[in-house]
Amino acid sequence: TRDEVIALRHQYLSPGILTYYAEPMMIVEGKMQYVYDEKGTRYLDAFAGIVTVSVGHCHPSVIDKVKAQTDKLQHTTTIYLHPTIAQFAQKLASKMPQTSGTTGQPLDKTYFTNSGSEANEIAILSARETTGNHDVIALRNGYHGGTANTMGLTAHGTWRFKSNNPSGIAHTHPGYCYRCPYNLEYPSCDLKCAHDVKNVIEYQTSGEIAAFIGEPIQGVGGAVVPPAEYFQIVYDIVREHGGICIADEVQGGFGRTGTHYWAHQNFNVQPDMITMAKGIGNGAPLAAMTTTADISKTMANRVHFNTYGGNPISVTQGLATLEVIDEEGIQENALTVGTYLKDALLELQNKQPLIGEVRGLGLMLGVELVKDRTTKAPAKEECASIVEHAKTLGLLLGKGGLHGNTIRLKPPMCITQDDADFIVAVLDEALT
Ligand code: PMP
């Protein structure tokens, strides 16, 4: 029973493991965009696990391929050859749109890990090895993981431990126009936030940069979409100081923004490395860092090892997921339903004064709640209670943002317009 699970959890699981909701939810079954609790109650999962279930819970063709692989070879490691890791790496390379802005080479060398944090660790390590520099620039309000270094990249006190103090990381402004730190308006601001990376480099680093890492659209930070030119300016300045540019596509990749396969393509830039996780494997413990021949070469003389990275089950699930994205028009659906949903949310904003801003692209949307549209005081408690209330109406939402006041809508990308109508109707009722 649910009570027994709660009792076991208290007794045997670390209290550090976060659960959502005052009454934590138990999920026993998943079917495409829906999950079911122990009583059989159905919920629309508008947060897709945590932006992990890209093509639908227990998608039949993903599950069939994983079952077949499990029967054939359940495990081996990268010290042996196995077919799927090679096929999957080839498939990922075929999805890389541009060459690296630094080396001019294609991004076609992949290193597999089990989590987004590890992918970002290997990216930073590779950048430091390649450039011989140590300092890294990340974005305020960003999230990059829970390991020692990636906690340092993550610019949010909520996710930090005072005992952990990684060195050589400075943070710059992310292009969060709704809360512009300079109180300026786009475009007359002249992208001051982007140009400011020059000052960050000058005042807070040695001046010689190993890497810049940024989520093209911030996920945990609340679907923050910077102006179109933002990343071009930042990438140029970082490269002038010797740095490699990393796009963290852990949440924004695999068609979620609808317009493009990768979120960074919305900003017309050519990263030198892409890190990915979550939606890459529809919920499998699978992640990767893809880069160029020259950059990946720096790791060739070193021994670096990841026991489960690229294991047969995870890469089979990854390959099957990417095939579904292609075959079932998942990216196109993210654009169509995402645009429909965003328009409806903008309409709702006219009626619901708590909505300060609706933002995002495709099915990566955020609704920032404020107590007052003029002062923009964050409506954090209201946000939490709306997320609770929506659950009682059969809708699971994400929450996040700098002040915990942004509702995050990132459902499995197979949702329909009817589901979008349901999301808006529930939000309307909860907001009222
Ligand atoms: N990067 C981003 C953008 C993320 O959202 C996350 C997870 N929320 C991570 C990295 C870390 O991924 P993981 O939890 O798989 O280590």
TrEMBL record:
Source domain of life: Bacteria
Cofactor annotation: pyridoxal 5'-phosphate
The keyword Isomerase appears for this protein: no
Transmembrane intervals: none
EC number: 2.6.1.44
Coiled coil feature spans: none
Enzyme class at the top of the EC tree: transferase
Keyword Transferase: yes
Subunit composition and interactions: Homotetramer.
Annotated PANTHER family: ALANINE--GLYOXYLATE AMINOTRANSFERASE 2, MITOCHONDRIAL, PTHR45688
Entry protein name: alanine--glyoxylate transaminase
Organism listed in the record: Algisphaera agarilytica
